[in-house]
Write a structure and sequence with these properties.
The structure is a homodimer. By secondary structure, chain A is an alpha+beta fold. Chain A has one domain. Chain A has 9 helices and 9 strands. In chain A, the strands form 2 sheets. In chain A, strands 5, 6, 7, 8 and 9 form a 5-stranded antiparallel sheet that branches. A 4-stranded antiparallel sheet of chain A has the order 2-3-1-4. In chain A, a hairpin with a 5-residue loop joins β7 and β8. In chain A, α1 runs antiparallel to α3. Chain A starts with 60 loop residues before the first strand and ends with a helix. At the A-B interface, α3, β4, α5, α6 and β7 of A face α3, β4, α5, α6 and β7 of B.
Chain lengths: 419, 419
């Protein structure tokens, strides 16, 4: 925290002096010289070899925004990324979004709803979408040749019911924090700073109890979600790009997002036993069917007295297991979402129409290469996973998340020095 | 907590035994007889003279649902309210929604996503809307004569842009908790239990930092929100209905909800001084203009050197103050909302079209009588409050929240014994 960076608790200081047109002196952070650079409580680091919000233990809240880019020149895009980098570093440290003196005769350098709150473990993660490299064939920023092969256009999967307004984007910003107001505040500041250069395309809120649950958190289907996720120790080789791709992405990763609406009303009327066969796990313990412990290996060959697999052929965990996919693995970092309720009409027995939850899972997968990660895993699952009876993928996107940056650098800098 | 009520942490017990068709014995709560009725940590009481979620200190998350009633008889409606009362009491205590033995050969008695989580200070508050008393002139439940005069149809206010799908309802359930998954879980269980008798009409999520802020929390406009709210000591006579209305509502209250979309993008481009004149308060301190302390009385007569009021005639706090409204007062218990973003086109200078936040404030007011509370206060504000330049009321509803109930009773019981 530098000397000219007031902490958020002191932003604007005493505005008794804040009469119209009077520039006011921001109060300095109340820090002794010896701890002038100490991170505040509940702050996650922003600078580093990798971006935060990927291997960072999940926070309670997500606010995710995909943007279209209206910046017309490469210089404008670089300037935007520089401004965003500075603001993101400040926000994660609990400081007002923009540096400088706040005058009451000027619009806010920070919109204020985070004043008095700690950073709540805020992380801000940037990703570059295909449209940043070329858009309708135009290479606006001279980056087309640098598009990584791994930043692949996702194929159409069986069952996809994608809504254009919830897909794609030239750039994304993921804000995660232990408070939804902090996550919203972060995206809002960055969108505000990017006015005229980047425009919102779609957004998504999410929540998770990972932070509060003793063990694996549950999704809205009531099952433990993430039992097979790689541990922090095992994740890095799965997640981080390295020498196999372009040098500018070394230390970065590829993010796939899927907005998965879940027919909760239907799911809730299924027998527990059916739910368990759908997942391949017991609901309460999370143990694979036939087992007793959540973390024991699933026995995919065990059969019952009739010779049927105890973990059915269409069970979710059978299809998702790396062991059944040539070792393909991803890091999942998914948030449940609740976007209210809207009208649904079903024209087949048992017939139903009415208001249903627009809720489900905002699935996020991070991997070194989506072609050997999410795409490989989901191609078969999309066809035969028993879960598909209750899930519909309505949003989809893929982003290249560049490596982290150092103080003084900016997010994506390696791309622009490469191109 | 009765003996047959397993705590949520033990629901379904070990399901190693939970094979298809096997009824399993729920594990008992691990409670010694002496503390068998002790409330778990983070539990708010459900039973009592008043409903929870009104004077209860605000929680972090709101999930609010308005329902249409499809119950065809009075007996069906009473049965629904009895089932809901039992479930609501169980949920607030952190128990599975429905009592009884869970068989794996049956749909869930509880959908499971709250397993392993504490009650997170969950409160569940029921309200009865005009449509419960009569609907299109039909008195379905023999309750028409009991509709309180205070359960008034709100007038059309200046600037209203109400969307039918976000208004009204025969009944509402408000769930507040310190975790959004717990609030969602509660509404989901009650909607599930009410299947066939009550159907979702509209829903609303919300969040607040009241619980985390040292002092008055801030809304999405960055200002402290609730400075003038009555204290816990002052609130009861403002909130609770008494001898002035029907006996069945004594100890109840009237809730007005307004879904207020805020043009945050515009607000964020206003000068701080303009924002402060709009509210009539300093942004950082929350002090009334001309003052230095948040809680000092606003001086509505003070003028500047030009003879203009320091707190402008159209400032929000001038118009909202009880002292300027013949003492009219309400208890506000409002949550910010973030429902994503959608397309907005503005056809006047400075011209703008694009994706804007669908965010703002889900305003809730509780009072003894809306005619002398919200309606009186808002009638003038809706015409001249400077805030109106940035706010649009798109949802509206009014509900009679009956008094609380005792164990063995049910919510609304006094209404049915009166009618």
């Amino acid at each position: 925290m530098s000397n000219e960076a007031p902490s958020r608790r002191h932003f604007l200081g005493g505005t008794a002096a804040g009469l119209i047109g009077t520039a006011i002196e921001p109060a300095r952070a109340q820090l002794a010289p010896s701890d002038a650079r100490a991170a505040p409580a509940q702050a996650e680091p922003f600078y580093g070899p990798h971006q935060g919000g990927i291997l960072t233990p999940m926070q309670d809240s997500l606010y995710f925004a995909a943007f279209d880019l209206s910046a017309t020149t490469r210089a404008d895009l670089i300037a935007l990324l520089k401004s965003w980098t500075i603001a993101a570093a400040r926000l994660t440290a609990g400081q007002p979004a923009e540096p400088g003196r706040q005058s009451t005769d000027a619009p806010p350098l920070d919109t204020g709803e985070a004043l008095g709150l700690d950073p709540s473990r805020l992380t801000i993660t940037f990703g570059f979408g295909p449209d940043m490299f070329t858009l309708n064939g135009a290479d606006r920023y001279g980056l087309g040749a640098q598009r990584p092969a791994a930043l692949v256009d996702l194929p159409r999967f069986a069952g996809d019911e994608l809504v254009a307004g919830q897909c794609g984007g030239a750039l994304c910003i993921q804000a995660c924090a232990n408070d939804p107001q902090i996550a919203f505040h972060a995206i809002r500041q960055l969108a505000r700073i990017g006015y005229g250069q980047a425009t919102l395309k779609w957004v998504q809120t999410g929540f998770s109890t990972a932070n509060k649950t003793n063990g694996t958190p549950r999704n809205l289907m009531g099952f433990k979600d993430g039992t097979m996720n790689p541990t922090a120790a095992a994740a890095p080789p799965i997640v981080w790009a390295g020498a196999e791709g372009p040098a500018w992405m070394a230390g970065g990763t590829y993010m796939v997002t899927r907005r998965i609406r879940i027919a909760l009303e239907h799911w809730d009327r299924m027998k527990i036993a059916f739910q368990e066969q759908t997942f391949g796990r017991h609901k309460t313990t999370g143990a694979p069917l036939g087992g007793t412990n959540e973390f024991e290996p699933a026995n995919f060959t065990a059969t019952d007295a009739n010779g049927d697999y105890i973990i059915p052929e269409t069970a979710h965990i059978r299809l998702a297991a790396p062991v059944n996919n040539g070792g393909a693995a991803i890091l999942r970092r998914s948030y449940s979402y609740n976007d209210g309720a809207n009208f649904v009409a079903e024209r087949w027995p048992p017939w139903h129409q009415g208001i249903e939850y627009d809720s489900g899972l905002f699935f996020q997968a991070f991997q070194q290469d989506p072609r050997t990660g999410f795409i490989k895993l989901f191609a078969r699952m999309s066809k035969i996973d028993a879960l598909n009876q209750f899930t519909t993928h309505v949003g989809s996107a893929v982003f290249a998340c560049p490596p982290g940056t150092r103080e003084g650098g900016f997010i994506g800098q390696t791309l622009f020095t490469a191109a």
